Structures are given as structure tokens and as C-alpha cells.
Amino acid sequence: MHKTLEESQALITEIRGIVRDEIRNNTEVIVCPPYVALASATRLLEGTDIGLGAQNCHFEDQGAFTGEISASMVKSTGAQYVIIGHSERRQYFGETNEITALKAKTAIRHGLNVIFCIGETLEQREDKSYFRVVESQLQEGLFALDRKEFSHVVIAYEPVWAIGTGLTASPEQAQEMHAYIRKVVGTHYNEEIANETSILYGGSVKPDNAVTLFGQADIDGGLIGGAALKARDFVDIVKAMQ
Q1: pTM of structure
Q2: How many structural domains is the chain composed of?
Q3: On the chain, which terminus has fewer CB atoms closer than 10 Å, C or N?
Q4: So which residues are the catalytic ones?
């Protein structure tokens, strides 16, 4: 919940310009502004390779859900992606694995690609249940999707204890979990699908730690929070993928 319409437009315009001038690799860049900025962001990003996503959507197609935004509404703005199951949605709005499963299915049915967030709390990390927690989030949130539907999923691992706290999972901790996620996906679907699935790391990624994190074998990119509020920091993180 950052940036007014005008502030969002200014940030996207700045990101667009720096990406155009400085990014020479094939890294896929996606911005996910607040709902109020989605339609104007589509126009601002026209003619670029930068993708656009929403931060959430409802699991019903339409109805008496005042204040909610449906997947078809998101799609109608020109967005191609939607974030589902972000740790803050789970923590503050009570989203369960069952709810995230419904949202993912609905979003994909309406032609959106899903950035599906999973991750453990500090308590779960300390009591050593984090593998089990993450596996349950995958099984209950995503594995009802068939293989074609799952091809529209990007997984984002967010250690909840490292979001907005300044703490970051060590590259070794992050790689261990990413490798485990890929293994679980491969067991449920197959190894080819697991290898083709992008798994992002989200947890206080900054320009000064991005290179080390992205250098891990199973970390395919980042889900960037606070650092994305400054265009220079965000693009420097994108450059770390080179």
C-alpha cells in the first residue's frame, strides 16, 4: 500500500526509462502497482518489455463483495500477472491455503499468470517445521492445477521473518529452500516442469545482496518489496541478474 496514482505513474516512468537505457540482458521485469494505477500503467508501459501485475484478486468472478477486485477486472486493465498469497495477505487478512488455491485457479482461468507466494514465519523457522509448512502451501495452494494451468505459475519464496525486517535469509538458506521447492514440484508434476518453473526469492532483497542471492543455482529472480519503491535501487537489482 504505497504510492498515489501520480506517484505510481512517476515511479513507473522512471523505471521504464532506466530499464530502457541500462538493461541489456533478457531479464523479465514486472511491476505490480496498486489497483488505482494499473490502467494508466498499461499505457505507460506500452511498447516496452516490462510486464504488469496486480497485488491481489478475489476468487469469485463477480458478486456482492464490496471493495474487492475480480480477476477479470485485473485482466481488463491490461495486466498480465497477479500476486496471490503474499505473506501480508496471509498474515493480516487471514488468507488460507484453501483461499489461495481458489484465487490461483480463478486468476489462471481469466488469462492471468500467477505469482504465488509461500514461506514460513520465524517461529516455524526456529521449530524446524519450515519444510513441512512450505510443502503444505504448495500442495494445498497449487497442486490442484493441471500441468497446463501450472505453466502459468511463478513461485515466490518469502521467508516471512525476512520481509521488511532488514533480515535476509543467507544465500545458503535461500538456496536450500528453493532446491526443496523445485524437488516438491518435480515430485508432483515432473522434473521437466520443475526445471521450467521460475522460483523467485522475496525477503529484503537489496542492490548489495542481490548478486549473491541470484547467483544461487535455484534462485531465478526476486520478488522485490521496499527496494522497488526507488527506481535506482530496483533497476540495480535487475542488473544483478546479468
Answers
A1: 0.97
A2: 1
A3: N
A4: 86, 158
